[in-house]
Structure formats: C-alpha cells, structure tokens
Amino acid sequence: MNLKQMSESKAEGRCPFCGKTIDVETEFSDELSLKEFGISGLCQSCQDEFFD
After folding, report:
1. Longest C-alpha distance within the chain, in Å?
2. Helices 31-40 & 44-51, crossing angle to 10 degrees?
3. Nearest to 42 by CA among 18, 11, 12, 25
4. pLDDT value at position 10?
5. Does residue 14 contact residue 21 with C-beta atoms inside 8 Å?
6. Are 33 and 43 in contact (CB under 8 A)?
7. At 33, is the pLDDT very low, low, confident or very high (cuts 50, 70, 90)?
C-alpha cells in the first residue's frame, strides 16, 4: 500500500493495515492511541501489534 492509499483509508475511517472500519468513539483504549490514529490511521489492534 502506498502513502496515497494509506491516506485515503484513514480519510474513509479504515485502518490502512488491516482495512477494519474504525469507530473513533469506541475503538481506542486511551488518548495516546487516539492521537496515534490521527497520525497513522491505525486501529487499536494494529497499534498494539506494531508498538508492542
């Protein structure tokens, strides 16, 4: 996936890694995870895999 596709996925509310539709109100475990979503577009599950 290229940068443009990743940006489009994020804009559509989908995780660019797994394609999951993200509900911003319920998806994230804390403010830091929500902030990371704003940067990368990753869902909580993909953030957990990537950063842990």
Report:
1. 28
2. 90
3. 18
4. 86
5. yes
6. no
7. very high
Query: Could you tell me how many residues make up the chain?
Result: 52
- Whether residue 31 is predicted with pLDDT greater than 90 in this model: the reply is yes
Q: Are 42 and 15 in contact (CB under 8 A)?
A: yes
Segment 2-13 shows an average pLDDT of: 87
C-alpha to C-alpha distance for 4 and 45, rounded to whole angstroms:
22
Residue 47, number of CB atoms within 10 A of its CB: 20
Taking the C-alpha atoms of residue 13 and residue 42, their distance in angstroms, rounded to an integer, is 10
The reported pTM is 0.85
Retrieve residue 33's tokens. 């995870």
pLDDT at 49: 96
